[in-house]
Structures are given as C-alpha cells and as structure tokens.
Amino acid sequence: MPIPLRVDFDAAQLRAVARRTKDGAQARRLLALAAIYDGATRTEAAKIGGVTLQIVRDWVVKLNTHGPAGLIDRKAPGRPSRLNDTHRAALAGIVERGPMPAIHGVVRWRIVDLCQWGSVPVGVGRVPGQRGQADAQPRVAQPGVSQAVGAPAPSCAGPSRHTDI
Length: 165
Known about the structure:
Strand content: under 5%
Strand order of the largest sheet: 1-2
Oligomer: single chain
C-alpha cells in the first residue's frame, strides 16, 4: 500500500509552486507529485521525475512532512572544518601581513607562520606547493615513471623551523 499524499495540497497548487521556484530539481519533483494527484501511478510519476519508485516514495514522505520546501536539495553536512574562529582570524592576519619579501624574484609565504599555531591539525603536506610530509613513506620506483628527488618537506611537528615554502 503506497503512502498517501497530503490532503491539504492538490495538483494545481504543486504546479503553481513549481512555476514560482528557482530550483529546477524541486520543480521536477513537484511536477512528478502533481501527476500523482491527477491520478497517475507512482511508476508513471517516477518516469516523469526520471527516478525510481523508492525516490518517489521519499519525495512523498518529504512533501508530507515538510511541504513543498522539503523537496529542495539541502547542502550536505560534509566534514567539519579543521579551523575554528581563532584559527581563521590568525590566518586572516597572516594574509593581511602579506608574503615575505621577494627572494630571487619569488614571493614566498613562510611556513613558520603556519606552523606557529601548533594546535591546528593540518600537516605541512596540505600546504599548497609541498610535495608531502617529511614523515611520509618513501615512494617505490615504478618502471617508466620519472623519479624526481627533492629535499624532504618541513614538518610542523617538533621544533619550529624557519623554512620557506
């Protein structure tokens, strides 16, 4: 037995909301559900929406729970930021101070500025321009691949180094 749609909406109302919305995905979902209000099967609504029956069921649950606004895509929560407000303020200060003066015509940012935070759980290997962390495993030679050898990247762990990037 399929989950029934809300009785306080009808096909005309859903189509009107679909016309006003700027979100194309929401409009597609609303039009598929409007077809169900008009008497179409859930399979036909799935074809209209270009999805499976399970997705149509999910749309019905969202419409019943949150109304048409429940059919808008939300930003995925994702991974929490590694920087807190204090770190962001310190980073803004570093950027406002600008890079070190040009050495041999190249402007460089100082790694010591980034490492002095200490509590930031970001390795130097994540800083653009670095090949990897100093404690990284050595690469294994692969046939036909050039093996560029360079100095190991500085690490934020341990004593502060005054190494330029």
